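Model it.
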Amino acid sequence: MKQLKIVLALLVKYSIRCVFILSSILFKVNTRKITFASYRSDHLSGNLLSVYNEICKRQENYQFIFLLKKFNPSILGKFQYVLHLFKAGYYLATSRYFIIDDYYLPVYTIKPRENTDIIQLWHAAGAFKKFGYSTIGKDFGPSEEYLKHIKVHSNYSKVIVSSTEVVPFFAEAFNMSKENILPLGLPRNDVFFDDERSMHIKDEFHKNYPELENKKIILYAPTFRGKSHATDKNICPLDLKQFINHLEPNYALIVNLHPYCQNLIDTELYENEQIYFMHGKFDIQALMIVSDLLITDYSSVIFDYSLLEKPILFFADDVQEYMQDRDFYYEYESFIPGPLFKDSVTLAEWINFGQYDLEPVIAFKNRFFDHVDGHSSKRAIDNIFL
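Modeled.
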């Protein structure tokens, strides 16, 4: 299986490289072309959307290209994915700026042209669970053999992160110099500092869910437990039925699963009046704004949420197993800014009691964000186009 994966990776690598080389011969780099590329979503979102909006505000005469293709494991989806890879080879050869927010295979198959900058606006804030080169030797990570052929997370000109604290971890994960990792804050979090936009988000949410206007809203956002785009081994860690059965009726639970996760929920839970499954109706920043507290396990959403200075609770009954598979940059239990629970009933009863200590959350925010001002998009643009 591993050898087959490497053979397929080589086939894809040299196919993209051929498109890239041919495009480089036939076309010059267009100094006004900016390509936004992602596998995470079919539409512009998160850091990419925030940076795009900031560029548009400045009324610069740029040509925008959007390579946004969420992976679909069906036969047709895989065919469309291959076509997407070939398009990426062309735009990597002809764009002045190529901006991504996650692992993006075509970037690692080519040698960038001298006049092209590849910018990584990594989707996750802070540094929590390990990724990239930090996971070599783990079940989750790339093998040494694979890295001989595909230099993952290579060719980045600049990486934008939340704080100086996490720069060494990103340097390790991306196998790159610290000097090109810039602690400017995450553009997508600027919305937290815009009262007008936040109020608009709350109004839109309550138009869709008027019955929640007087409820205390719990956001449940567990991390992705699979590898690559695979979703078949994922589970929903929290026993939602048991949790809701012990939760006071003045609470409502909104569930936001990772973009790659599908079909994880018992269908009868959709009939429960206290549970709401979002399925992309609102982005994660919006859900953080409308919620009163967060439950998660190993998700980097804790960094973003700390900016709001709201309670963060942790539900994780597989910490040791997760460490074996993935591991963390910090010792888990001493690092998290909130209490840890391992059974659903105890978690629900603790929420019903309603005693929260926000001091760890505020200290966590101050540690992992150098800038708390709502101007991260401006800083990103100023540094990308310097």
